[in-house]
C-alpha cells in the first residue's frame, strides 16, 4: 500500500540548516532559519521563562490531563495583550490553547471549512505553511499580491480581494511583522481593510505570530484590534513561540469572536471537538510557563524587558541596512521601515546560491532573510557580498 505514496520534497529551510552546519568557513552567516538570535548568534531561553520553569519544577503537583482546550489560565492571561483593556470584547471572545501558532492556524482553517467557508483569500508571498495547511485541508485558496516591489503593502490588492469576495469567503491576514516580507499595513490601511470586511461580510482570520517584535506589544496589536472592532465574527491565531522564545515547546492559542452567545458557545464546542480529534490536548509545559509569567508582575516585567531588547536589536540591524542604501542592484532602504524577523530581497535563486557558495551566506531561495541572523559584526560583509553578486 505504501508504495502508492509519492515522495514529498524535504523542507527547503531544514535542508539549508544541514548545509550551514556542514560549512566549515568560520565567518559563515545563517539568515535562513526563522528564530531570533542575539548579537552573539545565540537563541537563548528567556530569563523569565527559566524562572517560570523553575517554579513549575518546584510547585507543579500533577501532570494529569487538562482537556482539549488546554491551560485556560494561559488562554485568559494572554487576552488583554491581544484584545486590549476590554480583554473579552464584551464577552464576545472564546479561546483555547493550541500546539503552537501552527495548531491554531490548522484549527481555524478546519473550523472555517466545517462552518461552510468555500474559499480563503490570502496575500502572497506568505509563510509557506499557510498554503500547505490549506492544501492539506482542501480549502480553496485565492491569492493576491501582498506587496509592491518598492517594499510597501499592496493595499489595493487586499481591498479588491475583499470587495470581490463571495458570500462564503474568508481572508487571511497577518496581524503584524508579516512573514516573509516584514511589510505591515499602516493604521489607515487597517481601517480601510476593517471597513471593507464589515461591508462585504467576508470572514477574517488573523494570524499573529510576532506580537512585540515590530514596534511594541500594544502597537503591534492595534491594526488587528481595529479590524476586530468592526466585525461581528473572526478568528485569531496566536503564537507565543517567538515573543517568549518557546519555539520547540509549541505554545499557541486560538480565539473565536462572535456577536451571539449561543453562536460563540456552539463554535467553541466545534473547535473543541476538532482539537480532540486532531491532537486531543495541547502540550502543557510552555503554556504553563507563560501563564506563570503573565500572572506575576515581576516576571512580566522581566519578559517585557527581554522582548524590548530583541526588538531594539532588530531595529538597529534594520537601520544599519537601510543606512547602507544600496548593495549592487538591491535597494536596502525599505528594510528600515519593515517589521519583525524577516524581509525579502529581490535576488534570484542563482544569486542566493552564489551568496552561499562564494560568501558562506545562507538564506532561503525565495530571498527571505532573517534580520536577527545579522549582527553589527557581519552586516558589512553581507552588504559587500550582496553588492558582489547583484552588482
Ligand atoms: N504564522 C506565521 C505567520 C508564522 O510565521 C509562524 C511561525 N513561523 C506561525 C504562524 C507558527 O508558529 P509556531 O511555531 O508557533 O507554530
Features:
391 residues; alpha/beta; Aspartate Aminotransferase, domain 1; Aspartate Aminotransferase, domain 2; 2 domains; seven-stranded mixed β-sheet; two-stranded parallel sheet; 45% helix; binds 4'-deoxy-4'-aminopyridoxal-5'-phosphate
What does this structure look like?
- The chain has 391 residues and is of the alpha/beta class.
- The chain has 2 domains: 11-45 and 303-390, Aspartate Aminotransferase, domain 1; 65-295, Aspartate Aminotransferase, domain 2 (3-Layer(aba) Sandwich), CATH 3.40.640.10.
- It has 13 helices and 13 strands.
- The protein has helices at 12-22, 47-59, 72-83, 100-114, 128-137, 155-163, 187-200, 217-228, 261-278, 285-294, 297-324, 349-359, 379-390; strands at residues 29-30, 93-99, 119-124, 140-145, 169-174, 203-208, 233-239, 251-258, 326-327, 330-331, 342-344, 361-362, 368-370.
- It has a 7-stranded mixed β-sheet with strand order 2-8-7-6-5-3-4, with helices on both faces. It has a two-stranded parallel ribbon with strand order 1-12.
- Helix 7 (187-200) links the parallel strand 5 and strand 6.
- It is globular, with a radius of gyration of 21 Å.
- The structure holds 4'-deoxy-4'-aminopyridoxal-5'-phosphate.
- 4'-deoxy-4'-aminopyridoxal-5'-phosphate binds next to helix 4.
Amino acid at each position: 500500500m505504501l508504495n502508492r505514496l509519492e515522495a514529498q520534497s524535504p523542507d527547503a529551510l531544514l535542508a539549508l540548516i544541514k548545509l550551514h552546519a556542514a560549512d566549515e568557513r568560520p565567518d559563515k552567516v545563517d539568515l535562513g532559519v526563522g528564530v531570533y538570535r542575539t548579537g552573539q548568534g545565540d537563541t537563548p531561553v528567556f530569563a523569565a521563562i527559566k524562572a517560570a520553569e523553575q517554579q513549575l519544577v518546584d510547585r507543579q503537583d500533577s501532570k494529569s490531563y487538562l482537556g482539549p482546550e488546554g491551560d485556560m489560565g494561559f488562554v485568559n492571561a494572554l487576552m488583554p495583550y491581544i484584545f486590549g483593556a476590554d480583554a473579552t470584547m464584551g464577552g464576545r471572545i472564546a479561546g483555547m490553547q493550541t500546539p503552537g501558532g501552527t495548531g491554531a492556524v490548522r484549527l481555524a482553517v478546519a473550523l472555517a471549512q466545517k462552518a461552510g467557508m468555500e474559499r480563503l483569500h490570502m496575500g502572497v508571498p506568505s509563510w509557506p505553511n499557510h498554503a500547505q495547511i490549506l492544501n492539506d485541508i482542501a480549502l480553496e485558496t485565492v491569492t493576491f499580491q501582498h506587496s509592491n516591489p518598492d517594499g510597501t503593502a499592496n493595499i489595493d490588492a487586499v481591498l479588491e480581494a475583499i470587495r470581490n469576495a463571495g458570500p462564503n469567503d474568508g481572508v487571511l491576514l497577518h496581524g503584524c511583522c508579516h512573514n516573509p516580507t516584514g511589510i505591515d499595513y499602516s493604521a489607515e490601511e487597517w481601517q480601510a481593510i476593517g471597513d471593507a470586511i464589515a461591508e462585504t461580510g467576508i470572514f477574517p482570520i488573523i494570524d499573529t505570530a510576532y506580537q512585540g517584535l515590530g514596534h511594541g506589544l500594544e502597537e503591534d496589536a492595534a491594526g488587528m484590534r481595529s479590524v476586530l472592532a468592526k466585525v461581528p465574527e473572526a478568528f485569531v491565531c496566536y503564537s507565543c513561540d517567538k515573543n517568549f522564545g518557546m519555539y520547540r515547546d509549541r505554545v499557541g492559542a486560538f480565539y473565536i469572536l462572535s456577536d451571539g452567545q449561543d453562536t460563540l458557545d456552539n463554535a467553541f464546542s466545534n473547535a473543541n471537538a476538532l482539537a480532540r480529534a486532531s491532537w486531543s490536548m495541547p502540550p502543557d509545559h510552555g503554556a504553563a510557563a507563560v501563564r506563570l509569567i503573565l500572572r506575576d508582575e515581576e516576571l512580566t516585567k522581566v519578559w517585557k524587558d527581554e522582548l524590548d531588547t530583541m526588538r531594539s536589536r532588530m531595529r538597529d540591524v534594520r537601520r544599519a541596512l537601510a543606512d547602507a542604501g544600496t548593495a549592487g542592484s538591491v535597494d536596502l532602504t525599505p528594510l528600515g521601515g519593515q517589521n519583525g524577523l524577516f524581509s525579502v530581497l529581490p535576488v534570484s535563486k542563482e544569486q542566493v546560491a552564489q551568496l552561499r557558495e562564494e560568501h558562506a551566506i545562507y538564506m532561503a531561495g525565495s530571498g527571505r532573510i532573517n534580520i536577527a541572523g545579522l549582527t553589527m559584526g557581519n552586516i558589512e560583509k553581507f552588504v559587500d557580498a550582496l553588492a558582489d553578486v547583484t552588482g
